[in-house]
């Protein structure tokens, strides 16, 4: 490879720029080449509609992929949970780096925990998945909350709490950590309470399939455990025929590592792990009905193994009535 700078396509948001900057540094280290960020505005960034209304699927991704196809950028960085499950033949997910904390978190006034929110507390989120699970948990534990749909970047969402408009907002731990605002979290929501979005906390590095040299270089950043986990989660999502704004949660984890992961230590000994657990949930946004199931199998050694784990659980969930709960269905 020459020393010409590689062009990294990224959304313009503070979070996207932060995580793309981190990837740029890593790519520079493995390639020895400078990397420049190319800022691209996506439809999801400019629309003020709620994601469920604009379809969700691909709204943060299409413009980046079009720039790749036109050769305006050499590779792109996405939040994996924003990627449609169908992969275009001309593009390849060259790397899925080690996942950040996949959990959802609460940022609440007065440093409140979720269980301590006052009656009638207004909790903001733009995610039907979060609404479904928060409302279901509240119903089951005698809490009285109102989930309020919101849009906007991290600053805007946390601003609703600071202004007193909302009592709390729910955000992804990974995003706050990546922009250095993890200290604003008032409560980590256990995955037993709220399963994250499929792929949450993971990044996807995508480039043209015919750039074999670049594909090989970017693959240096791939984490096999993360790839296996998110492949199973996304397979579940695809088999449910749900888009990324549907109220579907999924998490594939390695049970012996889950406790250290939830304590913020992802560097547990991975050599002894033999099994992967995949959990999935679909629910109505009012929390009145949830279909929540799990399955455990050998740690997937191939892409097909991971896909099979996701399809297996999706089949069970559909048999339990998941299809009728999703609202938006992918066409």
- Find the count of extended strands (DSSP E, 2+ residues): 13
Largest sheet: 5 strands, mixed
Our estimate of the beta-strand percent is 15-25%
The N- to C-terminal Cα distance equals 41 Å
Q: What's the tally of helices?
A: 11
Helix content: 25-40%
- SS-based class: alpha/beta
Shape: globular
Please state the CA-atom Rg, rounded to the nearest Å: 19 Å
Low-confidence residue ranges? 50-56
How would you characterize the overall build of this protein?
The chain has helices at residues 14-31, 43-46, 51-54, 62-69, 128-140, 154-162, 173-178, 212-218, 224-239, 255-262, 303-319; strands at residues 6-10, 35-39, 75-79, 91-95, 104-108, 121-125, 145-149, 168-172, 187-188, 203-208, 248-253, 275-283, 290-298. Helix content is 33%, strand content 22%. Mean pLDDT is 88; it is low at 50-56. Helix 5 (128-140) links the parallel strand 6 and strand 7 (145-149). The chain is globular, with a radius of gyration of 19 Å. The termini are far apart. The chain has 331 residues and is α/β, with parallel strands linked by helices. The chain has eleven helices and 13 strands. The protein has a five-stranded mixed beta sheet, with helices on both faces. A five-stranded mixed beta sheet has the order 7-6-8-5-9, sandwiched between helices.
List keywords for this structure.
single chain; 331 residues; alpha/beta; five-stranded mixed sheet; globular
């Amino acid at each position: 490879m020459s020393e010409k700078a590689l062009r990294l396509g990224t959304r313009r948001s503070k979070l996207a720029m932060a995580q793309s900057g981190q990837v740029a540094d890593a790519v520079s280290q493995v390639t020895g080449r400078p990397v420049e960020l190319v800022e691209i505005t996506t439809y999801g960034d400019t629309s003020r509609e709620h994601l469920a209304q604009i379809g969700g699927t691909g709204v943060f991704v299409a413009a980046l992929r079009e720039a790749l196809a036109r050769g305006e950028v050499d590779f792109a960085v996405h939040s994996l949970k924003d990627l449609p499950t169908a992969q275009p033949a001309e593009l390849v997910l060259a790397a899925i780096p080690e996942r950040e904390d996949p959990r959802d978190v609460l940022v609440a006034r007065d440093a409140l925990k979720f269980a301590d929110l006052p009656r009638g507390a207004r909790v903001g989120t733009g995610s039907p998945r979060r609404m479904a699970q928060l409302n279901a948990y509240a119903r089951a534990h005698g809490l009285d909350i109102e989930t309020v749909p919101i849009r906007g970047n991290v600053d805007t969402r946390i601003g609703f709490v600071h202004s007193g408009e909302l009592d709390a907002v729910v955000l992804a731990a990974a995003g706050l950590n990546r922009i250095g605002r993890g200290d604003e979290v008032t409560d980590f929501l256990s995955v037993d309470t709220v399963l994250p979005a499929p792929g949450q906390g993971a990044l996807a590095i995508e480039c043209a399939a015919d750039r074999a040299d670049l594909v090989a270089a970017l693959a240096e950043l791939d984490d096999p455990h993360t790839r296996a986990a998110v492949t199973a989660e996304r397979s579940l999502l695809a088999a449910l025929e749900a888009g990324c704004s549907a109220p579907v949660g999924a998490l594939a984890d390695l049970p012996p590592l889950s406790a250290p992961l939830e304590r913020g230590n992802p560097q547990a000994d991975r050599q002894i792990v033999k099994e992967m657990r995949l959990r999935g949930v679909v629910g109505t946004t009012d929390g009145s009905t949830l279909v929540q199931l799990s399955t455990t199998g050998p740690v997937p050694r191939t892409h097909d193994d991971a896909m099979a784990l996701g399809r297996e659980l999706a089949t069970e969930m559909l048999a339990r009535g998941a299809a009728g709960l999703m609202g938006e269905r992918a066409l």
